[in-house]
């Protein structure tokens, strides 16, 4: 994932910007990492896997999410993001706002 995409990506829960934490990179691309919503009251986060942000609810991610968490357990724990699906990730996507490109 190119870092410039952070300028247009928005949290689907609250339309805030994301902060990117890179776990692995190649050249100037994030290969694996996590996007964390900057709004403290939101707390949503989404994995970046093989350079692609995976901005889906935990139900739609299925086994991928468990595998991602297992593979990056130590980094996720350091960020305090070890409990996907409880308070850190929004599962109710019924009120999702398409915030791509909107200023915050």
Q: List low-confidence stretches.
A: 85-104
* Number of helical regions: 3
Secondary-structure element series: EEEEHHH
Taking strands numbered 1, 2, ... along the chain, how are they ordered across the largest sheet?
1-2-3-4
Apparent shape: globular
What structural category characterises the helix and strand content? alpha+beta
Hey, roughly how much beta strand do the residues contain? 15-25%
What is the gist of this entry?
With 104 residues, the protein is an alpha+beta fold.
Present the secondary structure layout.
Layout (H helix, E strand, L loop, with lengths): L17 E9 L2 E9 L7 E5 L2 E2 L4 H4 L1 H9 L1 H7 L25
Antiparallel strand pairs: 1-2, 2-3, 3-4
Structural notes for this entry:
With 104 residues, the chain is of the alpha+beta class. The chain has one domain. Helix content is 19%, strand content 24%. The chain is built from 3 helices and 4 strands. The protein has helices at residues 58-61, 63-71, 73-79; strands at 18-26, 29-37, 45-49, 52-53. It has a 4-stranded antiparallel sheet with strand order 1-2-3-4, with no helix packed on it. The longest helix has 9 residues, at 63-71. The two termini are 22 Å apart.
């Amino acid at each position: 994932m190119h870092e410039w995409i952070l300028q247009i990506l928005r949290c689907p829960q609250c339309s805030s910007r994301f902060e990117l934490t890179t776990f692995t990179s190649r050249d100037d691309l994030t290969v694996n990492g996590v996007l964390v919503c900057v709004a403290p009251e939101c707390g949503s986060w989404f994995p970046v896997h093989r350079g692609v942000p995976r901005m889906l609810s935990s139900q739609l991610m299925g086994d991928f999410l468990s595998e991602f968490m297992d593979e990056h357990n130590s980094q996720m724990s350091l960020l305090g993001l070890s409990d996907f699906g409880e308070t850190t990730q929004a599962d109710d996507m019924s009120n999702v706002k398409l915030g791509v490109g909107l200023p915050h």
